[in-house]
Design goal:
237 residues, two-stranded antiparallel ribbon
C-alpha cells in the first residue's frame, strides 16, 4: 500500500509569535526583563543558551546598579551588612573615602583590588572611581541605625517581594523588601509572614522608602506582663 504523506501548510495561527522586545534595552524581550528585574540572578539567570547569555549579561533592566531591581535591593543589603557587621580595614575605608572625595592617594597595600572585587570601586585602567555601591557602604558606616518594629502587610509569591510598614519610620508608607530576606532571617514559610510583626535594625533617617535597609531581622521577643506598647527606639549598629 502506498503511503501518502500530507504536509499541512502553516497558517499564521500556527506560527509562534515573536516575543515582544523590551522598550528599555536592546538585548532582551519584555518578558525576560520582567523576570530579570524580579530575580537576584538578573536576566542572565533566565537564559540557557551561551550565546544569549553573552547578549543579556549586561542588561541594564535587571542590573544591581538599576534602582528597584532585585539585584539592586540585594546589593544594598549586602553593603549595609558589610559596613555594620564586618567592615573593611581602616586603610581600605580611607582609600574609599578619598575616592569619594575625588582626591589623589597612594595604595601601597593593594586595597584597590579588594574594593574592585566588592564592586565598591571601578577603573578604566587609567583612573579609579567609587561606585554607587561603594557610596552606599560609606553611608552605612556613617548613618545612625535603630531597632524598629516592622509589620508585614503582604507577600507577592510571584515576584518574591514583601510589602512592610517600618513602624519607627512612617506608619502610613509601605516599603518593598525582598521576601526571601525575611524568610532566611526568621525561618518561617513565606506565606506565613503577612500579618506578623518583626524587629529589625533600620536607617530611620532615610528620605525614600527604597533607601530603607533592614538588617538583623528577627521575631520579636514574647510579650510579657511588663511589656509597654510604646518602646523607645534603641540606637544600634
Amino acid at each position: 500500500m502506498t503511503q501518502i504523506k500530507i504536509r499541512e501548510l502553516l497558517s499564521p495561527e500556527h506560527v509562534r509569535p515573536a516575543a515582544a522586545l523590551c522598550s528599555n534595552c536592546p538585548c532582551c524581550s519584555a518578558r525576560l526583563c520582567e523576570k530579570g528585574r524580579s530575580s537576584v540572578t538578573q536576566c542572565l539567570g533566565h537564559v540557557g543558551d551561551s550565546k544569549a547569555s553573552i547578549t543579556v549579561s549586561a542588561c541594564p533592566c535587571s542590573a544591581e546598579t538599576t534602582r528597584g531591581t532585585h539585584a539592586w535591593r540585594a546589593a544594598q543589603v549586602q553593603a549595609v551588612r558589610h559596613a555594620t557587621e564586618n567592615p573593611l580595614p581602616k586603610d581600605a575605608e580611607m582609600i574609599l573615602r578619598v575616592l569619594a572625595g575625588g582626591q589623589t592617594f597612594e595604595d601601597p597595600a593593594g586595597h584597590l583590588q579588594g574594593l574592585l572585587a566588592r564592586r565598591y570601586a571601578d577603573t578604566d585602567h587609567e583612573s579609579w572611581r567609587i561606585t554607587m555601591l561603594g557610596r552606599r557602604y560609606l553611608s552605612a558606616l556613617d548613618e545612625p541605625r535603630y531597632t524598629s518594629a516592622v509589620y508585614v502587610q503582604s507577600v507577592d509569591l510571584e515576584t518574591r517581594t514583601a510589602t512592610v510598614v517600618v513602624i519607627g519610620w512612617n506608619m502610613n508608607v509601605s516599603v518593598t523588601v525582598l521576601a526571601d530576606h525575611l524568610v532566611h532571617a526568621v525561618g518561617l514559610p513565606l506565606d506565613s509572614l503577612p500579618g506578623r510583626y518583626l524587629d529589625a535594625r533600620v536607617n530611620l533617617g532615610a528620605a525614600d522608602p527604597d533607601d530603607l535597609v533592614l538588617t538583623r531581622i528577627q521575631l520579636p521577643a514574647p510579650i510579657t506582663s511588663d511589656y509597654v506598647s510604646a518602646r523607645p527606639l534603641r540606637g544600634a549598629r
